[in-house]
Specification:
There is one protein chain. With about 725 residues, this protein is an alpha+beta fold. The chain has six domains: about 140 residues, Rossmann fold (3-Layer(aba) Sandwich); about 160 residues, Topoisomerase I, domain 2 (Orthogonal Bundle); about 130 residues, Distorted Sandwich (Topoisomerase I, domain 3); about 120 residues, Orthogonal Bundle (Topoisomerase I, domain 4); about 80 residues, no CATH class; about 35 residues, no CATH class. About 35% of the residues lie in helices and about 20% in strands. The strands form five sheets. The chain has a seven-stranded mixed sheet with strand order 2-3-4-1-7-8-9. A seven-stranded antiparallel sheet has the order 15-12-13-14-11-10-16, covered by helices on one side. It is globular, with a radius of gyration of 30 Å. The two termini are about 55 Å apart.
Length: about 725
């Protein structure tokens, strides 16, 4: 008898098939002597839509709500019908004796496989492959220690509860809002609190009143001293008269050194990356959206196999990974990491190292390099950037702490105290991995900055002191960008209305709003639903979102709700809470939410109506701005017609080199830049043709690799020499 292996995606299935020596391609699978490997396309099966329970639910009507199926039905995703039938056929083969689940090792991965098996009516024994990387070594070791698939039944229960709960609350609340106010309004336990977080920040910005603050700076003999209030310890005051009076009283006096403290200090490398931390860094350094970073990570994990599983919420590795560190160092020890890796290659890693903690690793450890040898030339520029972040972080935790000498100087002018600090690096330690690129976030007052201090001792007097009043204005909180909003979703306790310490603790323990695997998709959904919009890099609420937050039930706006759900789902996965008890509460909650919306007294008004009429139904259309495009959308939700009138492009302005918007339709399309530059699409194509567009950096790189052992004075090289590539 053979075993059927179900992978989540074709690329992973091919890797598993190669390791298991399966080489015969059949419909939707790869067969070998002992195994058959098949795959999903992500999810093949999902919870059925309301109209699958009764055709009347295809029309959205308030009187039909709430929708409460006694038993949830499953349906095959329409675009995946062919692959589902192929998988089902393999499941029911007479020569298949058992099923091996090899989908992603996590809650959603478990759901992918289990829904397929339930829909196909599988009765055969199941086993589970649980691995964090898809290298040949990891696959072989994983198959050597397969577990009984039913050991993961609680994880499946938790995944199914999450899906059914989101269906019950999301579909009923969204249909109720849409029908009650005749507008396309959607809400959910994660996306609505995320909107509320942005709304709270906008409220703080609107209510902020800037105040002018003042300080006093003393300069003499190459040293700058900053005044500090003797009572509060602050370097600032809002009392202008006081600071000016101090300057007049102290002008011309000598400063006396009262204290010089010198201390040797250490800083350790930041912890390893989990997905959210990597997404935040990638946005900060490269401007990659969370979704872009996840997609790049997925390619590095699945296709290149050089990084471990990306959807992790842990920043630690478990002790069983420690013996593999040397192999991982050897695999990534290519230029520009060869010398850095060589320095720690021969150093034994202690199981008690700060980044090793079994208790802080749940399903998956932190993102680190695999044992797969890396070929940097096979990566895109974006993949190289993300890989570089992960490898340098991995190398840095293996290096010793950075050591520096910090000098704190206190001087007196009259009765007032002034301070200065200096720092001298003694041992670079982990900072060597980053060179000059790594910025340290100082905990010191930003006004008291490090400087190079002359040698001074207690009692020394400083002559020729010049005093100057400094001033500035307090600033409102910054608007969210994609990186900071991601951080707020991970740590939403500061945005809770209740200020409940226990709820805040629960939010911290459960990972905030959503999961590392879903936050990027949630953010994209909010942009796609025209609830959020970007102006430059800053995120704003749309008028639609502001009105939605007025109409939606209060509970759905609170981070506490999703924290409560995630805590209970974790208990279900651990076998400590029954699925039936959780779902009973969810049904009651969905019914209460629906009734609250049904009896609501609010109104919804479109304030973005245009004079353009819908070509389908004739009603006036709405002008909306999405994440990367401007659209016209029919105001009639049942019509649903939409047209793109402008979209972001990768074309660079020849004047300021910023990305341009493409507006219009057909040959009449025009590129428009924020600097004012305009260019017809036809003219743009002609210009790019002259500049040599179409030859990518990868084409050039491959060509140069082929030329290493050949003379380079060829006709093709001459042609390449004149090509200008976009940066």
């Amino acid at each position: 008898m053979k075993a059927l292996v179900i992978a989540e995606k074709p690329s992973v299935a091919r890797d598993i098939a190669r390791v298991l020596k399966c080489g015969k391609n059949i419909s939707g699978a790869i067969e070998g002597g002992q195994y058959i490997v098949t795959w999903g396309l992500g999810h093949l099966v999902t919870l059925a839509d309301p109209e699958d329970y009764d055709p009347k639910y295809k029309a959205w009507k308030l009187e039909d709500l709430p929708l409460m199926p006694k038993e949830f039905k499953l349906e095959v995703i329409r675009q995946s019908q062919k692959q589902y039938q192929a998988v089902k056929a393999q499941i029911h083969r007479k020569d298949v004796g058992e099923i091996i689940i090899a989908t992603d090792a996590g809650r959603e991965g478990e759901l992918v496989a289990r829904l397929i098996l339930v829909k196909a009516g599988n009765k055969k024994p199941i086993k589970r492959l649980w691995i964090s990387s898809v290298t040949d070594k990891a696959i072989r070791e994983g198959f050597a220690r397969l577990r009984n698939g039913h050991d993961y039944d609680p994880l499946y229960d938790a995944a199914l509860c999450r899906a059914e709960a989101d269906w019950l609350v999301g579909i009923n609340a969204t249909r109720a809002l849409t029908c009650r106010y005749n507008a396309q309004l959607s809400c959910g336990r994660v996306q609505t609190p995320t909107l509320a977080i942005v709304a709270k920040r906008e409220e703080q910005i609107r209510g902020f009143v800037p105040r002018t603050y003042y300080g006093l700076r003393a300069s003499a003999k190459g040293i700058t001293l900053i005044w500090k209030d003797g009572k509060s310890g602050s370097t600032r005051t809002f009392d202008r008269e006081r600071i000016q009076g101090l300057r007049r009283a102290l002008e011309g006096r000598e400063a006396e050194v009262r204290e010089v403290k010198a201390a040797r200090k250490k800083t350790c490398a930041p912890l390893l990356y989990d997905l959210t931390e990597l997404q935040k860094d990638a946005y900060k350094r490269f401007g990659f959206s969370p979704k872009e970073t996840l997609n790049i990570m997925q390619r590095l994990y699945e296709n290149h196999k050089v990084l471990t599983y990306p959807r992790t919420d842990s920043r630690y590795i478990s002790s069983d990974i420690v013996p593999t560190i040397k192999d991982r160092l050897e695999a990534c020890a290519v230029s520009p990491y060869r010398k850095l890796a060589a320095k720690v290659m021969r150093t034994a890693v202690s199981p008690k190292a700060a980044f090793v903690n079994d208790k802080k690793v749940s399903d998956h450890h932190a993102i680190i390099p695999t044992e797969q040898y890396v070929e940097l030339t096979h990566m895109t520029n974006e993949e190289r950037k993300i890989y570089d972040l992960v490898v340098r972080r991995f190398l840095s935790v293996l290096y010793p702490p950075a050591e520096y000498k910090e000098i704190q100087l206190t001087a007196a002018l009259g009765e007032e105290s002034f301070y200065a600090k200096g720092r001298r690096m003694l041992k670079e330690g982990w900072r060597e991995v980053y060179g000059a690129d790594e910025e340290e976030e100082s905990e010191e007052d930003e006004d008291v900055k490090s400087q190079s201090l002359p040698r001074l001792e207690k009692g020394d007097r400083i002559e020729g002191v010049h005093l100057a009043v400094t001033e500035g204005k307090t600033k409102p909180p910054a608007r969210f960008n994609e990186g900071t909003l991601l951080a707020a979703m991970e740590n939403p306790a500061a945005y809770m209305e209740s200020h409940d310490k226990q709820a805040a603790k629960t939010l911290g323990e459960t990972g905030g709003l959503g999961t590392v695997a879903t936050r990027a998709d949630i953010m994209d959904k909010l942009f796609g639903s025209v609830l959020l919009e970007k102006r430059g890099n800053e995120i704003y609420l749309t008028s639609k979102a502001k009105q939605l937050l007025e109409l939606v039930p209060a509970d759905l706006k609170k981070p506490e709700l999703t924290a409560d759900w995630e805590m209970k789902l974790s208990r279900i996965a651990d076998g400590k809470l029954k699925r039936s008890a959780f779902m009973r509460d969810i049904r009651d909650y969905a019914q209460a939410v629906t009734e609250e919306i049904r009896t609501g007294t609010g109104t919804f008004r479109h304030d973005n109506l245009t004079n353009t009429k819908c070509p389908v139904c004739g009603k006036r259309m709405l002008r909306v701005k999405g994440k990367n495009a401007e659209l016209l959308v029919c105001q009639d939700r049942e019509c649903g017609h939409r047209e793109t009138i402008a979209r972001a492009s990768n074309a660079r302005c020849p004047v300021c080199h910023k990305k341009m918007m493409l507006k219009g339709q057909g040959e009449g399309q025009v590129f428009v830049c924020s600097c004012g530059y305009k260019e017809k699409l036809s003219a743009f194509k002609e210009r790019r043709k002259k500049e040599g567009a179409g030859v990518s950096k990868r084409d050039v790189r491959k060509y140069l690799d082929r030329q290493k052992d050949e003379p380079v004075n060829t006709a093709f090289a001459d042609a390449l020499a004149g090509i200008k590539l976009d940066q």
